[in-house]
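Model: Ready when you are.
Researcher: Fold this.
Model:
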Amino acid sequence: MQENLRFVPEGEINYAQTLNRVKASSPIDVVTTARAISELFKTEDIGPRSLITTAVQELQQTDSLDQQALILTFSFLLEGKPQLHEGTEEFLTEIAASHNYTGEFSQPFKRFIGERLRIASVPQARRGIESPIETRRMLVLLRTNSEFFHDLVNLQDYFSQRISPVMPLNTTWNPLLTELFKVRGTEGLWYVYSHNRREDYLQLMKQLMSSEWTGFNRFATEPWDTVGKIVNKEGNLLDVGSSIGISAVEIAKTLQMQGRIILLDYNNPLRNLSSLRIIDYANPNRRLVPLNEALAKMEDLRENRVLTILYGVDFGEPLNPSIKTVIQDSALVHCANTIPYLSPIKLHQAIRNAIEATSSEGGILKLHNDSSLPLDNIFHSITMQRQRDNLRVLPDLVKGRF
């Protein structure tokens, strides 16, 4: 820790020195540095705004692809004080004592529990998706059933190792399991453990566990006016991390882009076994949409635009020339919610790939984290325009908790 903070005198961050170090570091050193500074943000009364401002300035002053990728990686790795629902730590202490658990709870598991506590206490927290009443029953089960407690801890570890290193379990249930057990949500968890279906549940959860959460009108409601005025409407749109392309098609329609829509899904080892939760965000109840209905809706929205699908590509690794040829010179590169699903080292390469894929003739690159995701990241979103080797950050399109 001290080695990585030798440029931080007396608990204060020298922003220029920090960014100079970042630009000259390896990706591994950048990860370590970001973690060290994050500890200051978590424990000291030091705000991140000045550091992020300096990072944005440095980003625009370099024409080095390597340095641009390092600065953006560093910025997205910065964390602040954990955002946990009130009473989460106390609840965790209680259930650990109840089940004689002496291990450390991971931050994703804390977020998982915090979200359940929020839903249980706020009636409209996730209307139409998870019932507060059934969530409270699940929390009682968590207090009283040791098998259930340990199963959830282990499932979160399984999820963290194979799907996302920082995200909590994205749901307490799965649409395919809902169909099998004829129950849904937390009611399903209660059913499994009260009807001796535990082994079936654990086996199927590991097979069908999914990180995917997509929906209609989720990104079309963003303020696209600034991008719409300058994007090349005849150019191609590359959507990184898209599952079936709903949001990409909606973005292309919103911006009136007529070029190809290219879907490049980052590599997921459970891709063929995972299931989609497709939400109609335009519906007041945010209803779940069957896959067939979602695909039909996407076809209707697509109109005459060509859809190119590149599944199974590991965007966190250097891309082979054939893939680069397909995605190069994209007028808009949209990376939405991919960051939480990539390890820090893969994140660096993914950002580098995204910059390379963006057209040097005014192409737009948008790196976007949904601000509603239960993450501690300080930096959420940035939109840039590439002119030759330079990246210009678009005003008012930098978002975060700073």
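Researcher: Now this one.
Model:
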Amino acid sequence: MIKKFFNAFTLAEVLITLAIIGVVAAITIPSLVNNYNEEAWSTAQDVFTKRLEVATRQMNTEEKLAGYSSTMDFVNELKKYIKITRVCDNNNITKCFNKEVIWNEGEDPIDMSTIKNAASLGQDDWDTDTVAVQFANGVNAIIAYNPNTTQEPFNNTFAATAASMAILYDVSGNKNPNTNGKDIAHNANVKQLAGATGCLLPEEELGFCITQILGTENGGYGPLTKAECEAQKGDLGIGSCNDGDDYWAGAVKACGGINNMPTMAQLGELATYLYNYGSTIGAQQNVSSISLDTTKASQFLSASPYSERFYVWSGQRFYSFGAYGRCFNSSSTYLNNYYGRANSYLLAVCLDH
């Protein structure tokens, strides 16, 4: 007869194994939950912005987008095109929206009851109040209507949402973290939030203040035609205009001029910050075998069409037909120039000078 012998685990070995599993779980689970939340927020933002754009495009087609004297009048028309379950005027904002929002990490939360007009969202030229709404899909938002809205009913590519409103929205309703760049998002017309510094990253670490990070989707920035560029180049500081769609010129316009665009030296300083690099990355310097801090870079990655990298325009032209920019990969960063200024995947990063 052949005897089989089995070695049993001792109680100490079992406890040690369980302890190791517990430590690994404690390390990995928060990261997995955070990644899941960020993916869920990003997906919810994409779905909401597409639904809102469909609604405003339909308003544009039916010539219902322009001509309102107040945000409340506009919202009362908007709710015919997208389901809104509750509307609150600017004296009752927090009945429809969060009481506080963290606009910049490390700053005190903003009291949202103070966001009473378009100027509170950075639109000093719009003489309209804010209105808070709750959408049927659980998204809460604060809206200010642009009284200068135009409409183009025969243009099905018209960016109706960007033309008509400044909107700040929370895709998680009243749930935490109520933080800009996470569950809180906004379109390009929201320039700042009253009470915040307006800097999206720590100015004391960068040496300059980034006020906006815009992609070409979800109400970001768009290209200028040659005619549009020629009409505005003097005010914007654009030396010459190109044929066709000029995304670089569009980025310059979105930032309010060349002087509000980063120099190549500043993009090097931005790379130094985002990669936690030990010394300053120069304007012309390429660096590899480094690691992008995705937490610091989260707002850039959210605006980028790519999940693991992004590209940023500078305000410096490359001869008369191109413009310089910098690429930020997961493990490298490098200078580049983009001939024709026609690439739509570069971000417009705007500075406050």
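Researcher: Key takeaway?
Model: The first helix runs from residue 11 to 61.
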